[in-house]
Every structure is written in C-alpha cells, then in structure tokens.
Specification:
This protein has 251 residues and is an all-beta fold. 0% of the residues lie in helices and 31% in strands. The two termini are 26 Å apart.
C-alpha cells in the first residue's frame, strides 16, 4: 500500500473520529486545510479519552525497547530479524508506522517501520519490517532501538508534567482507542490554566502548564533553554479554565 505525502481536506474532517483504522491513512499523516492549518492523524491511547482543547503527548520511549539485541545483516534488507525486548513484549504491528535505529555511531540511521511480529521479551525472535531497504549493514554487537509513532496511542499530558513530546491539540472529545486528528499548526483554541503562570498579553509565548493536565499557560522566562514553547497567544486572553486562542507551532 502506498500513502500520499500530504492529505488535503476541509475543516469538517477534523471533527470526525473512527472506531477502526482508516485504510490508506498513515498514523502521523499530515492534513492541510485550505487556510494553512495542519493536523496529524492520530490514535488515542486505550486508557483515557482526549478532551476538546487538550494538549496531548506521545507515549514514553522506555528502556524495554532500547539497546536490544538484533541479528547481523547486510545492507539492503527490509526485514530485521532476531529482534529482542527487555521485559515487555510488543504485540504484532504495535510498532506499525513507528521508528527503528541502532544506537551505534556508524550503522542504521532512523527508519520507519512498516510492520512487526510479536517481539517476545528475552527471546530474540521478533522481526521488524521496513518500508525501505537498509542503507547500511547491521554489524555484530550492534543494538537496536525502536518506538511507536509519536501519534500512536497518544495521551493527555499527565498532571505532573510532560513526559514526552507534545503532539497536538484535540478539537473533539476523542474516545479511547479511536482514531482522529489533532492540530499541530495554526490558529486554534487550547485549555488555559493560569494557576502557575498567566498569559500576559497577545503575541507572547505559551507552553504546557507547569503542573501538566493538558492545559497551556504563560511562560515565566522564555529565554531559559529548558522551556518548551508550543505557540504564541493569538487574541484576547480568556479566563482561567476556559479555552483561549493561540497560534500553535508544533509542525
């Protein structure tokens, strides 16, 4: 199956959700609206629904899927064999549209995953299939790292703080395990929490609220190199707990 580089559609598309994966639409695929707003096709995690205006994040890449054994292979293969996992066992196609690489300095750069068999922990029997043949060898002693697509199994940013990259703002209440769209670029509204830092004016940077929970807030010092900026305030700042307009800049 081939996938278009960019999807084009109307605003009505971003208010739809699906109980089954859409054929021919890639997780993380980019939807461009006529006015330039950008959305990404996503799959909601199975534990909690997303809400209107929530700032959401990717799943956390864990050590269970980093530095794993893999078979030695020549360049030009599309199936990686002998793949292992430390303690959990990713099920078949859990990594579909995700990414894989070796953590060695000169071997496999990051590549996209087409499919995978079950990767049983400590068994070294899993396989990962790529869309594209590998450009390099995988040498003896190389170790493999892999993770889900950032828009697969997304969750609302936890109440404590972000634990992975922000991936977009939801325009609808997206049911657990459903597919839909999150916005990553352009004018939108976001849940606003001024408890820690308020948004002081139009045109100032905004980021995830310090206590998490899927809201945005102002930024105390945007010059700090650890600050995560997701956009700028776009129009009049609304009240605490309401949706406020921002220009989102994740894409």
């Amino acid at each position: 199956m081939s996938y278009p580089v960019l999807y084009h559609g109307g605003e009505d598309q971003v208010f739809k959700s699906y109980s089954t994966e859409r054929d021919g639409v890639m997780i993380g695929g980019k939807l461009l609206l006529p006015d330039g707003r950008i959305f990404r096709y996503t799959h909601c995690g199975s534990s909690t629904a997303l809400v209107v205006g929530s700032l959401n994040q990717a799943q956390v890449h864990t050590t269970d899927q980093s530095g794993e054994p893999v078979a030695t292979m020549a360049a030009g293969v599309t199936v990686l064999t002998g793949v292992d996992s430390t303690s959990t066992s990713p099920v078949a196609d859990q990594l579909k549209f995700g990414y894989v690489y070796t953590d060695n300095a000169t071997t496999l750069p990051m590549m996209q995953i087409k499919s995978n068999t079950k990767i049983t922990a400590d068994a070294e029997t899993g396989t990962i299939t790529l869309f594209t043949p590998t450009p390099t060898i995988i040498a003896s002693g190389n170790t493999l790292c892999y993770f889900e697509n950032p828009w697969e199994d997304i969750i609302v940013i936890p109440a404590s703080a972000p634990t992975a990259i922000p991936v977009g703002i939801c325009k609808i209440a997206l049911t657990e395990s459903y597919w839909g769209w999150v916005q990553t670029q352009g004018p939108t509204t976001a849940l606003y929490d001024s408890a820690t830092t308020s948004i002081s004016a139009i045109g100032v940077p905004v980021g995830p609220q310090a206590a998490g929970g899927g809201a945005v807030s102002g930024i105390a010092d945007s010059a700090t190199d650890t600050v995560l900026i997701v956009g700028t305030s776009l129009a009049l700042v609304e009240g605490n707990g309401e949706q406020t307009p921002i220009f989102l800049t994740l894409d």
